[in-house]
Amino acid sequence: MDLRKFSASRLAVMLSDGKISASELAELSIERINKIDSGLGAFVTVDESGIRSQALQADALLAADKNRSPLTGLPLAIKDNISTAGIRTTCASKMLADYVPPYSATVVEKLRKSGAVIAGKSNLDEFAMGSTTETSAWHITRNPWSYEHVPGGSSGGSAAAVAAGLVPLALGSDTGGSIRQPCSYCGLTGLKPTYGTVSRYGLIAYASSLDQIGPIARTSADCALVYTEIAGTDGRDSTSMIDNNGNFSRKLGKLKDDVMAAERANDFSGFSLAGKRIAVPKAFAGYELQQETAEALEQAIRVLEQAGAVISECELPLLEESIPAYYLIASAEASANLSRYDGVQYGYRTARSDYADLAEFYSLNRAEALGPEVRTRIMLGTFALSSGYYDAWYLKAQKVRRLIRSRYNEILTEYDFILGPTAPRTAPLLGVSLDDPLAMYLSDVFTVGANLTGLPALALPCGFDNSGLPIGLQLTGRAYADDELLRAGIAWQQQTEFHLALPSDKEAESAVAAQLSGVRGEVES
Amino acid sequence: MKSYETVIGLEVHVELSTRSKIFCSCPVSYGEEPNTKCCPVCMGLPGALPVLNREVVEYALRTCLAVNCDINKLTRFDRKNYFYPDLPKAYQISQLYEPIGRDGWLEIQAGDLDKRIRIHELHMEEDAGKLLHDPWDDQTLVDYNRCGVPLLEIVSEPDLRSAEEALIYLEKLRSILQFIDVSDCRMQEGSLRADVNVSVRPIGSEEFGTRTEMKNMNSFKAIGRAIEKESRRQIELIEEGGAIRQETRRWDENKDASFPMRSKEDAHDYRYFPDPDLTPVLISSDWIEKVREALPELPQDRRSRYILELGLAEYEADLMVSHPDLSNLFEETVKLTDKPRETASWIMGELLQLSKDKSCELAELEVEPKAFARIIIMTADGTINRITARKVLLAAIDEQVDPEEYIAKQGLAMISDTSLLEQTVAQVLADNPASVEDYRKGKTKVTGFLVGQSMRLLGGKADPQLLNKIVLVKLDNIVQN
Ligand SMILES: [Zn+2]
């Protein structure tokens, strides 16, 4: 049985109907991981025995028919910056190579309670800083659609794991596009939820005011199943939303029920775009979009119109300013968030003993363990907060952020969604992005807005370029209306088939074969 | 030599006695096994997040009201960044931009003057851990138990002009904090510490001199001494034509001198910015009013009440309000004795002496108001004399005896039988003819000896005044005959 032929929602129905067991699903997942991940590099840590024991528990839940959720028995990859008690959590950094958290993130607790099977920890850019997963201290991750291309980042491991069919679902984290951009590059659906709807407790912080955990899956319906399970107020996160009267959780409950009922009936016609007002910012056209991306977007607009949506152009000022504002704020927060990695209590400690004082001890620990991209951002952030520069950089960036937020909110009083591309171009080749970091930063232009404003944004597949690489679009919705956004995504996927396309396994097989012959060569010589 | 005045500003850090820490649910405790009272949050583990303890805000509000601060109704926390092994996140969550209180003041009595010391601001923050050096293997170990213990920092304006004023201010502040029950202010446990800023300037000058700072001082004695020495050092340096360097100095109690810290330790840019993990704290007028209503009577109000209503002298009232436990003992006892001055004098006399004998603080003596009141009443009505009373008081404190039972059991009640007294005195006079002869010659001093002898025979259970009177009457009878 080929796991990739089924969406997570379909698998959930099959599990529920006893057509497949969680243990069988787990074996399929383990088999596929073992078959291709050595060449793909999606995972940092795979816990085979853990997968099997969780699957057995899930089967017991399914058999007892209680305390189960749509996720019960579904294998899931977790980005390696989300704390898992007893399982190494490295942030893809030498600094945390041996760090095993004593506690689990709230989302992990929720997933465990729901009976999901945590398959392992997926690769990322070091401390989630990067757009390609190439800054991981462990290894690169390849794009399942083309092994010469990056999967995007920073949640590249999670995206690659789902796109290659190692697992049907994954969690990523999104600070400036880190869920949506890899989804766009890998032909997947990913949600950056409204800030505060998913607890950050246990998410190893990059930029606290921007970070948000979210689902990565093949379809919007699948994302809905994960999101409805992980979202909600958390007393351990002060920035977590307050759900007055339980309205929010009721909306999520309804979404979950609607999705499961539609999947069971194989009829999603209840999800519609008719009458939805969608704004397309004129300013997006000013960016150098890859030609196929621009065309795919125009085609998408036609499809949306045919589905009954009303599309209009709108103004969106300050788009250009959003990139520097984002990088200043993110780096400033990161400079403080990452200061705790000093080698005193846990984490990497230098082997040298010839340091003169405490300051040099700290410097050695940090310089030896943190990669160049992380060091660059720490230095940028430290500078932005320095006395004498605080007003000119950090405070000004916050002002820009406020202006952007109020403009987005104005647009969203008139419109239901804002439509645009997720990324200006399809996945770049491995190795080229880090040579031109500024261009890499600029490519976040369409995604950082959702983080600066806290609004939810959904990346959806909308086409392929001439070399067969996926193209993605992005819908941004109103705060706390994540359910409406996901419903729109489901409706979009009723009109299109991009999410059904699968990358070929040929490259995966030849990559593993090449690797094996390389190993053999080493052994023989 | 010109005359100089010393200018002092104090930053007082006080540990709050809330049940749990400021951003997690670990208990606030002292003297526990290292690293047993901590969790992912206060140890700064990756991914852990702070959640503000409302009780801390409540305590801070109480303090703001007690020291007359304006309350910031939208207060916020900031990160103060610096590396040190006792600070596991490498930033301290503190308040810089929007502290909870601003522009307060405290009135102190310095000499004959009432003086208002302005308070610049009051803010909440978390404490750091403790470093312990193990000299055996030359290792420094970290105890995180104290990490996240709530602190208030109360920053004065540079309004203090001498070590004496600084100490009066500190004592006043300590007493307020104890009365409103936000801290036990045990200095030896580090729950009250002060950073001391000192500068000097020629008298009459409007401008401040360059100041130096001595950090983390935890004894009043050391603070007083350090101010005196530092101001003398600065004056001497200026007189020699030198210039004061703005620096942080370390006070060495053993050497009775301060020394500059290395400039590296001193050169901090804390890069404060609002902590994105915590949302601003909204303080409603309702909340403030509730706290105001529940605020206990402040020491200065009690002091005036003691003077105006209970007729205490100022110095007596001052002592009675020096600690809430003492003040409460006084009030409880007065309720039973209805003798405020008598009670105050017992506290200032007998209790003070007892605390000196036991070398402890007055407030640390565990005195039961009921027993204390009985002893005072029985002394006043002549059941026991003052010497016996002292004995009973000691037993009441050390063994928690019931005064009446104890007096009865030990047979300590005074002899009320006058004939027995007269008989005993007659006996003593008969046994000491030489003394009687001395008295006849005008050496009246001998009466003391004769009273003492009589008291000895009576086992110390006579009313000394009565005994004295009987001795005099009997001597005069003998002389006149
Ligand atoms: Zn704790």
Please tally the helical runs of chain B, counting DSSP H or I stretches of 4 or more residues: 16
Widest sheet of chain B: strand order? 2-6-7-10-1-11-12-13-14
Helix content of chain B: 40-55%
How much β-strand is present in the residues of chain A? 5-15%
**Alpha-beta classification of chain B:** alpha+beta
The average pLDDT of chain A is 95
Largest interface: A-B, 43 and 30 residues
CATH-defined topology of chain A: Amidase signature (AS) enzymes
Cα(first) to Cα(last) distance of chain A is 39 Å
Number of strands of chain A: 11
- Our measurement of the CA-to-CA distance between the termini of chain B, rounded to an integer number of angstroms, reads 75 Å
Let me know the average pLDDT of chain B.
91
The first-level CATH class name of chain A: Alpha Beta
Overall geometric form of chain A: globular
Q: What structural class do you assign from the helix and strand content of chain A?
A: alpha/beta
Overall description:
The complex is a heterodimer of chains A (525) and B (481). With 525 residues, chain A is α/β, with parallel strands linked by helices. Helices cover 44% and strands 12% of the residues of chain A. Chain A has 17 helices and eleven strands. In chain B, the strands form four sheets. In chain B, strands 2-6-7-10-1-11-12-13-14 form a nine-stranded mixed beta sheet. Chain B has a three-stranded antiparallel beta sheet with strand order 5-4-15, with no helix packed on it. A two-stranded antiparallel ribbon of chain B has the order 3-16. The model of chain B has no long low-confidence stretch (mean pLDDT 91). Chain B has 16 helices and 16 strands. In chain B, helix 8 packs across helix 9 (340-357), helix 10 packs antiparallel against helix 11 and helix 13 (418-431) packs across helix 16. Chain B folds into three domains: 4-286, no CATH class; 297-410, no CATH class; 418-480, Arc Repressor Mutant, subunit A (Orthogonal Bundle), CATH 1.10.10. In chain B, helix 3 (220-239) links the parallel strand 12 (212-217) and strand 13 (247-252). With 481 residues, chain B is α+β, with helices and mostly antiparallel strands. Zinc ion binds at residues 21, 24, 26, 38-39, 41-42, 148 of chain B.
